[in-house]
Amino acid sequence: MVEKQEQEPEIPYLTRIQVLVAMGITAIFLWIVAKLWLQIGNIPLMSWRWHPRDFWLGIGLALCITGLSGLAYQHWLAYRKSADYYLEIVLKPLVLPDLIWLGLLPGLSEELLFRGVMLPGLGMNHFAVILSSLSFGVLHLSGSQQWPYVVWATIVGLLLGYSALFTGNLLVPIVAHILTNLLSSFLWKVKQ
To answer: What is the pLDDT of residues 101-115, one digit of tens each?
Structure first.
């Protein structure tokens, strides 16, 4: 009997410009969806205001998410393979200064849509956090074998969603998302 060998998916290598353009287009698309939802749904954008406590909560949450991601990476083989595949596509062609865009563009556009618009649009409750987190997770699906990464992104979405729900300030998940992207991508790039 011949054993069926599981094949690794082929990584579609992109250029630096392709990755940056894709990030920009995705950010613009998410911003447009958010604006349309606000207009058509006639809902208010979740408030975000400067408050030192919330800024530091965002930093603390980012450090927790980055630490948990590191633990998942070390102890969950399926996640490690999935994360490496995803990060190889996105991060490999980028240079260190590009990581600023990787922090800002998704951090702002994804938080605007998934926490700033979806949470109030769906009722600012547990259902809203869960549905927005599942949507956030699916956004990170880049291939048929990427489900562990989607599961992780959904968990991160729950943490970001509940931080917005409990504080009532979109600043917390924005800071956490931007800093998590910056730290995680920097650590991955340095290890390569």
So the answer is: 999 999 999 999 999
